[in-house]
């Protein structure tokens, strides 16, 4: 057999044994099933297009096979703008579920500018579902996802076991600018992993050497004193060993990075500082995801604060009610009335004709002014309405009539004694 024939046979063998990477496009209204492929690409656009349309609803179920797991690498995201705090539901988004098409709970959803960069399955299936609404006024190229199948008893692609036998590690270098500690925790969780727990000398040394090989200076790890200030604990609730050096701890710096250059754990502000992250997962068995610790003192303070808010709110309400009631009583209290007067203030007083109650004096028209020594009580009646000033002389009293005021006058007389006068006016 000639050399040319051998080359032809070799090329044919390579073509036959090589695995082609197939691109799976969106088919609106259809969920595709991908079986028997060890790698491939998924794009959220229709075949032959570079931008996605409105009102798309398509899905993909990746079946890795028995004893296999699936790794997704999100290499491109260009979607309709969405607020960072949104749940993605009403915006264009790609949801990734850990299971087949019957699963409804998502590991994560990608919308706006969010990108988890990597997602790993916990079993043989992953379900991806893309949705677009009818509110796109600009063209967007959508999402590109590469998938790869690997054995469940091996570390995922691009992960390393650091010469250990039961753990896999990866320094996540995307995004390049880094993320805060909580986002780093979430990104590791999307890969069925935790932030790294470094409690052995061998792991400490091997991880530092690996970081230097990939040119990484520092990265978040799973060490905090969030729960109790000054007490450093790993996410698995174990305490920091004494042989590890730390620095930078204060009230605001509760989350640790591994500084590979200084070989120390430095504490940074969890929500402010941005770094890469070191993730850790089991090589063989499913990884238990640890929860983020909760600050005990803060929790207690929040409970006390809420209790005082309730007490102060109730007390303030009672005081306001009392004040309002007092003001109501003050301005709506019924004023007392004099005997014989009208019980209602709304009734207007109507003047009455003057009346005399004396047997010697007939009704007479009152004078405007009387100060006459010839005044005779038998001939002149006292004026019915008058202001009567008395003096110490024997003269008769001077009576000044106020024609605009009606008075009731009662005259009492007893023989030769001077008469006594009782003046009364109706109360208005």
Write the layout of secondary structure elements.
Blueprint: H1 3-17, E1 22-26, E2 31-35, E3 39-46, E4 57-63, E5 68-78, E6 93-97, E7 106-111, E8 118-120, E9 125-131, E10 142-151, E11 167-172, H2 181-190, E12 194-195, H3 201-213, E13 218-224, E14 233-234, E15 246-247, E16 255-259, E17 264-268, E18 276-282, H4 296-332, E19 369-370, E20 399-400, E21 408-412, E22 420-424
Parallel strand pairs: 1-3, 2-4, 13-18, 15-17
Antiparallel strand pairs: 3-10, 4-9, 5-8, 5-10, 6-7, 6-9, 11-18, 12-18, 13-14, 13-16, 16-17, 19-20, 21-22
Description:
- It is a single chain.
- The chain has four helices and 22 strands.
- By secondary structure, it is an alpha+beta fold.
- Strands 11, 12, 13, 14, 15, 16, 17 and 18 form an eight-stranded mixed sheet that branches.
- Residues 341-349, 375-379 and 390-395 have low confidence and may be disordered.
- Residues 164-272 form the C-type lectin domain.
- InterPro entries: C-type_lectin-like, C-type_lectin-like/link_sf, C-type_lectin/matrix_domain, CTDL_fold, CUB_dom, Sperma_CUB_dom_sf.
